[in-house]
Amino acid sequence: MADTTTEGAPSAATGVHANKGELFTSFDVDAFEVPGQREEAWRFTPFRRLRGLHNGSAPATGVADVRVAVATGALPSGLTVQSVGRDDERLGQGGAPFDRIAAQAYSSFPEATIVTVGPEVVLDEPVVVTITGPGVGETAYGHTQIRVERFAKATIVIDQAGSGTYAENIEFIVGEGAHLTVVNLHEWADDTVHVAAHHALLQRDAVLRHFAISLGGDLIRLSPRVTYAAPGGDAELWGLYFADAGQHLEQRLLVDHSQPHCRSFVTYKGALQGDPALGHGHEAHTVWIGDVLIRPAAEGTDTYELNRNLVLTDGARADSVPNLEIETGEIVGAGHASATGRFDDEQLFYLMARGIPEDVARRLVVRGFFGEIIAKIPVPALRERLTEAVEAELDASGS
Hints:
mainly beta
């Protein structure tokens, strides 16, 4: 396990740090103060819906079911799956918890699951990690680590569904010259509260392709953090989310460029549909915070981040905040963009002028909006499944 706190970081009590990469971290939940609504990291999160995850009043009452499988049944040579205790020295190598809920999850999981792809192993089929919630009214904590050793290549699907309240940490350790594609699917039941911290560590010339798909649940708060341990790392983070009335879907990203000649590219797209008749407090609400830090040593960095939100009805709110911190001028490029709006009237007019009914035209616009991200997913069955899921969301809205 890594050190208890970040070297040189301030105490949790002060909340003061030189940059977002110096956030206080600890495996000890008691090292963190209970967060408040005035804190920047929590100002959009509805605490009353967290069911006590943030203040320690939600003891574990259930256990999430974690299973690992491949399409052919038997695990291929070079792939190992282990259940380990909290004292396993590999845990925490991807990064320590950076908020109180992540620390609570680390202090409370009954056992962790480590999935390892051995050195120079190339897996032809995706590995599916299925995580099922603890059940209605139950609370559980989890920890999963994905390790792809040097020069290995794998696609990992983390498929999450079921009911209950679930907080977790997921680590991605990508070795030298390795290539990891991970697709994290959230298709939780309507009652579910899910808070997750993703910790990705890239070694020299490592490649990470990270997809986060949020469709279900009552409240989802996902916080991916990417760090580079050596030069040459390449990370792409792709996200898709679709919020209905009453849902709160929140993504808070941090890409910490601390090594030279690394690349990051972020694209998240969301759609929202509310129900004005339900009134205040029942809006569809999405939050996207995209932080990119370029430290003084990170010369040659190339980074860009983009967030777009499509508001389909009244009764929906999207908050989008891209942030760049640049501490060196010796970079290839750095940029960000954010846009939130309703249907493009010109696109609708163009389609309707060619005899396409309005409801069909709206569907085509939404399909095109999400098409870029779905097309990037390298698993055909998942692409088909996501297309059907988006269609089901549109059916629910009557579009």
